[in-house]
Amino acid sequence: MNEEYDVIVLGTGLTECILSGIMSVNGKKVLHMDRNPYYGGESASITPLEDLYKRFKIPGAPPASMGRGRDWNVDLIPKFLMANGQLVKMLLFTEVTRYLDFKVTEGSFVYKGGKIYKVPSTEAEALASSLMGLFEKRRFRKFLVYVANFDENDPRTFEGIDPKKTSMREVYKKFDLGQDVIDFTGHALALYRTDDYLDQPCCETINRIKLYSESLARYGKSPYLYPLYGLGELPQGFARLSAIYGGTYMLNKPIEEIIMQNGKVIGVKSEGEIARCKQLICDPSYVKDRVEKVGQVIRVICILSHPIKNTNDANSCQIIIPQNQVNRKSDIYVCMISSAHNVAAQGKYIAIASTTVETKEPEKEIRPALELLEPIEQKFVSISDLLVPKDLGTESQVSGYLKRVITRLHWAMSPDKFQVFVIFISRSLYPVPMMQQLTLRRPVMTLRTSIRG
User: Fold this and answer.
1) What b/e sequence results for 127-139 when a residue is b if at least 16 CB atoms lie within 10 Å of its CB, and e otherwise?
2) What is the CATH code for 119-218?
3) 59: which DSSP letter?
4) In sequence order, which ranges of 69-178 are alpha helices (DSSP H)?
5) In the chain, where does the domain assigned CATH 3.30.519.10 lie?
6) Which CATH architecture best describes the domain 61-107+293-386?
7) Whole-model pTM?
8) CA distance 25 to 234
9) What are the pLDDT digits (tens) for 118-142?
């Protein structure tokens, strides 16, 4: 460990592992350490079930009805992958998919008026859906045709709309869409958590809806994918990539000190040894003095012995509760997977409800989601802080937040491989990764038959 590295990475969350993998591939000397004895950090999948009970300080052992503890791989944070999204493209390009198997999520649902409705995935489902009335369906179809034909580089597809200036509110008004349809479109298709997008230029929202449609078209049932054995497989896949190209990994390594000299990082001290570096990348928990709290997220992991009601007995699904339906400022998400994904004992289901905390009673805020899941066999509640950096880290070369790190990542890319421009996987950690532009220098291969329906 007493060596010099180009980069030291602290924490083995998904974002940190993506970075160490990419930089190792491009010839950088990388040391990757984690204080935990397992991969994943906040993105870990906990196994066996007994460890989850200990983590949340639940007294006693899991009941016999839960099956074998080793049959469980419980995600601490819910997330589904968009089938045609940038994260999937990155997995394909780096060939990390060789280490992973995926399964298509069976359905996407939206909450309206105290009930849940399937988000239509075919034209026949759209015509039969009770989400909209007959005339609304016609107007909505016209809107979707416009979105499908839209190309921000072709003014002929704009139809009088300026994508850089026209607000999304004005676009909805142009197509005469009602409030319920607006809620459904903005929150279940474009996947916004608040209504702030309504008064912003419409280009991004239209592209989000296109992404949803393109992802849905790939596998039919829903636009979402989920890795077998849990989300913890994703960081491990990138960790393997890094190791193959010479990256050094050390788990269960307590970090004693981040060594600074003249305001710039020069190394990390662990168990009396010092590893020197030119740059340090870490999750916010390693640099608490360099980040500040801007909010909180509540997550409730629920173990069920039944599928969620009114989901056609789906063994996996996402339910979105739009803010306006429950008089909130931000949406509530429910992400459900099951034994079909090798994350639970036979006949068991895991549902995770999450939302941004807005009051002093966060468990009361999440109640509309929990009511959809009843009866609940066991629940595990966590409230996590949302942290942002106090500075960009350009002077200190300490980057404690992914958004600040990857804007500078182009230095690690060689021209014959690919370049990354501003990739940001949201640390708000909701089910769907929010990512910006990824530019590839070679065609993206098709996803292998590891995708299972």
Assistant:
1) eeeebbeeeebeb
2) 1.10.405.10
3) S
4) 86-93, 123-128, 134-149, 168-174
5) 61-107+293-386
6) 2-Layer Sandwich (3.30)
7) 0.86
8) 17
9) 987 666 777 778 888 888 898 998 9
